[in-house]
């Protein structure tokens, strides 16, 4: 999976500027609702909403961002994102930051780091009119046809980080950015219960919990006495059965809701587990209700 998801680069509403260290700046505009954008965040990202509304979710955590709002998100999360235009346009600018640029900023500013035991992968940011005037100047650079050296945008990112760190209302910002390179190891049981319906590979589940693939498989087997693939299949099918019986979802909607992208594969697995197809279960449910 690429550091920056492919759909960002192929989206006609996106303007991207790549820096030499693999950091990048992404300016996005949308004229329609853009729902269920899903990706693994492999860089730390600063998100600023210039117009409209945006919801960013990971697990059970969710942030609703309106015009003028901002959040810093730590890498290593599975992100679901919705964007909603206001008065015909959604507009945002995102700064995807490699650890190296953050470390260089901390070192160059000689910042005092005050450690905290609190942990969250999200850091809501206070913003000012001055800050958004600064962001508007970056958008003008990005939309210009003139070539600009990557070093210019690197300096702009340093200036942005300095503006955020200098705002006393962003208490704990420097401690948060210092901790970005130290993704904590997630509790496997909590993470899997929150994310088993997401269409992820075993390798991606391992990375998102902060483990190598071999360590993840070993610890998973110790916890559940079965492989990750076996547990995920059974857990998804159990959830699918619950949805078919208790919700008004059809087979296609249920398939998607529990993390399967191929409906034929889903039907085959379901029949193997429960001795009947999802459609047959729905018909049985209807006959009982009648």
Explain the overall architecture.
There is one protein chain. With 290 residues, the protein is an alpha+beta fold. The chain folds into 2 domains: 6-179, Sandwich (Jelly Rolls); 188-289, Arc Repressor Mutant, subunit A. 46% of the residues lie in helices and 22% in strands. Strands 1-2-9-4-7-10 form a 6-stranded antiparallel sheet. Strands 3-8-5-6 form a 4-stranded antiparallel sheet, with no helix packed on it. It is globular, with a radius of gyration of 22 Å. The mean pLDDT is 89.
Sum this structure up briefly:
The chain has 290 residues and is of the alpha+beta class.
What is the general shape? globular
Return the CATH class of the largest domain: Mainly Beta
Q: Name the structural class.
A: alpha+beta
Return the CATH topology of the largest domain. Answer: Jelly Rolls
Average residue-wise pLDDT: 89
Major sheet description = 6 strands, antiparallel
Number of DSSP E strands? 10
Amount of helix: 40-55%
Rg on CA atoms, Å: 22 Å
Percentage of β-strand residues: 15-25%
Adjacency order of strands in the biggest sheet: 1-2-9-4-7-10
Could you give the order of the helices and strands?
Answer: HEEEEEEEEEHEHHHHHHHHHH
The low-pLDDT segments are none
Distance between the first and last residues' Cα:
48 Å
């Amino acid at each position: 999976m690429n550091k920056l998801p492919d759909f960002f680069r192929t989206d006609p509403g996106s303007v991207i500027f790549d820096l030499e260290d693999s950091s990048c700046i992404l300016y996005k505009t949308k004229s329609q609702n853009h729902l269920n954008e899903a990706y693994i965040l492999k860089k730390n990202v600063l998100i600023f909403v210039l117009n409209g509304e945006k919801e960013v979710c990971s697990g059970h955590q969710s942030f609703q961002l309106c015009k003028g709002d901002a959040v810093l998100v730590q890498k290593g999360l599975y992100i679901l994102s919705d964007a909603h235009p206001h008065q015909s346009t959604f507009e945002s600018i995102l700064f995807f930051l490699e650890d190296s640029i953050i470390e260089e900023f901390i070192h160059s500013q000689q910042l005092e780091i005050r450690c905290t035991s609190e942990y969250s992968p999200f850091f809501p940011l206070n913003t000012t009119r001055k800050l958004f005037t600064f962001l508007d100047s970056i958008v003008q650079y990005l939309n210009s046809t003139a070539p600009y050296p990557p070093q210019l945008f690197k300096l702009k990112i340093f200036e942005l980080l300095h503006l955020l760190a200098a705002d006393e209302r962003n208490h704990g910002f420097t401690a948060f950015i210092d901790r970005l390179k130290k993704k904590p190891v997630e509790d496997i049981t909590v993470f899997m219960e929150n994310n088993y319906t997401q269409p992820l590979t075993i390798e991606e589940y391992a990375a998102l919990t902060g483990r190598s693939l071999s360590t993840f498989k070993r610890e998973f087997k110790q916890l559940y006495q079965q492989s990750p693939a076996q547990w995920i299949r059974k857990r998804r099918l159990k959830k699918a059965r619950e949805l078919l019986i208790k919700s008004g979802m059809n087979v296609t909607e249920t398939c998607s809701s529990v993390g399967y992208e191929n409906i034929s594969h889903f039907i085959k697995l379901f029949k193997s587990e429960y001795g009947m197809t999802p459609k047959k279960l729905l018909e049985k449910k209807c006959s009982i209700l009648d």
